[in-house]
Amino acid sequence: MYIVQIASECAPVIKAGGLGDVVYGLSRELENRGHCVEIILPKYDCMRYDHIWGLHEAYNDLIVPWYGTDIRCDVLCGWVHGRLCFFIEPKSWEMFFNRGCYYGCDDDPMRFAFFSKAAMEFLLRSNKRPDVIHCHDWQTGLIPVMLFEIYKYNGMEFQRTLYTIHNFKHQGFGGNEILAATGLNRPEYYFQPYRLRDDFNPFAINFMKGGITYANHVNTVSPYHAWEAQHTDQGFGLGHTLHTNQHKFSGILNGIDPEVWNPESDAYIPHHYGLTTFEDKALNKKELRDRLLLSQSDKPLVAFIGRLDDQKGVHLVHHAMYYALERGAQFVLLGSATEKSINDWFWHEKLFLNDNPDVHLELSFNEELAHLIYAGADMIVVPSNFEPCGLTQMIGLRYGTVPVVRGVGGLVNTVFDWDYDTLHGPEERNGFVFFQNDTVALESAMNRAFDVWNQEPAIFKQIAQQGMAYDFSWNHPAQAYIDLYEYVRHK
Ligand SMILES: Nc1ncnc2c1ncn2[C@@H]1O[C@H](COP(=O)(O)OP(=O)(O)O[C@H]2O[C@H](CO)[C@@H](O)[C@H](O)[C@H]2O)[C@@H](O)[C@H]1O
User: Fold this and answer.
1) Helix or strand or coil: residue 259?
2) Residue 15 in marked binding region
3) What is this model's ipTM?
4) Which alpha helices (H) appear in 197-334, and where do they start and end?
5) Residues of the chain scoring pLDDT < 70
């Protein structure tokens, strides 16, 4: 099959979070199985050019219709660790992707509407006719809409779309101006409640709703979150749209790339280890402590890695840090916040705790350090408010770092409580789970983990090793995506 991924991220060249990991990891596994995959991305000024090999011009002067006139683009092409990627670079005064950031601009809906339009125009003009166009999150929600309302009539009648939602919270809103700019026009048509009109704001179109309505199939990134999105408030207002489209909505658990995340061969960790050489994990803990100027001691080391965002339960992350210190453990936090209040808050904490030899806050995005933390920590906390899948607990499991998580979304599908899980036997349990969204519940799960660590180290090691034995690679999920591609291409 010939699959084109259209997304706003692809690790490691463009990575703000888990979306980038998924686009890269899934594409690699699909190619390993003999499928042809190409990835279309914006050409951001701030992406990691050092991860692109052989960047060259692929399409000169692509004319993208925009607001009744046009914007000219160059399309560059290069290999990101073996994946063929096309980067769209608009040449216009708006400087859509030359802002020194991936997201967070006031005109984000316009920026990504343009990207979606340009990606479709590129496919059309360069005569690329993939079997399936796989698009991701709100940034590319208008692609199925444009395919079936415009490009289908211009020579793309056989293309099909799969739309994957990694995060329901960010949906992408706009008004008439988006319709006018992209050439969709006809507000009276698109502002119908069964097309793009937002269910809660009659004056807005909703990109994600458009993607759900128009795509041949829609999925989110874990089976449990697919249920939550339809039946609880975790659909962030799209529950009704998901209900009406439930015949084409499902959940597929993400994978992690075993070449990127493998303690036996990870280039970023100084001491490799595996199931049978588990003791060597301790050498990475020592290295991590040295690097972050933490004291060497016999204390357990708890970590958090992730975006510092309301989604990740920042208040519980904060509480976990102080509770770990209170219980005589060490804590390492690696995260970055886009919201100013959260950023200020954690910078304040960082300065306050600066001289404490048992805690380190690294407030930046640092891929290399993330690998060392996964390898060096004993436990990883994931106290999310909601979590469509969650990769950090899966990576933690792979590195023998025991997850302590809140039982939501994909965390339910991947972490099985040592004491209380009734669906998995003791030999399958791999972590600690709490359910209520409060400090008491968090503390009780952390307590249970600390107690096992302190009083029954052999059992703690057993839990860690049971986690390492799980196969959360792309092996199974890639097959599920291939089955879906086959299904939609014959629709
Ligand atoms: N400061 C930092 N420095 C270095 N690395 C950092 C970092 N902060 C985060 N990372 C890395 O980014 C990834 C984050 O994965 P998550 O599953 O938490 O993704 P996120 O919530 O962004 O994405 C959404 O999409 C993914 C993919 O579908 C879903 O798993 C998830 O539930 C959903 O919210 C991990 O690889 C982590 O190591």
Assistant:
1) coil
2) yes
3) 0.99
4) 207-214, 223-231, 239-244, 281-292, 314-326
5) none
